[in-house]
Amino acid sequence: MEDIQEFGYNRATGFMWLLQGRKKVEHTFKRVRQTVSYAAEVTAFADKGKLWKITGVTASGPRS
């Protein structure tokens, strides 16, 4: 993700968001042969090493 325009984090709720200039970005992790797509807006809740209610991120490909 190279064209990040805004990133925010609310410490009280753990809500975080990221806005990028492009509509969608895809990245392939070669070691695990998995492609991840990031939408123009990605949101999640974060707490001590874990994320939940993630939106704007999808993964495809083999998990071997």
UniProtKB/TrEMBL annotation:
<dbReference type="Pfam" id="PF04398">
    <property type="entry name" value="DUF538"/>
</dbReference>
<dbReference type="InterPro" id="IPR036758">
    <property type="entry name" value="At5g01610-like"/>
</dbReference>
<dbReference type="InterPro" id="IPR007493">
    <property type="entry name" value="DUF538"/>
</dbReference>
<protein>
    <submittedName>
        <fullName>Uncharacterized protein</fullName>
    </submittedName>
</protein>
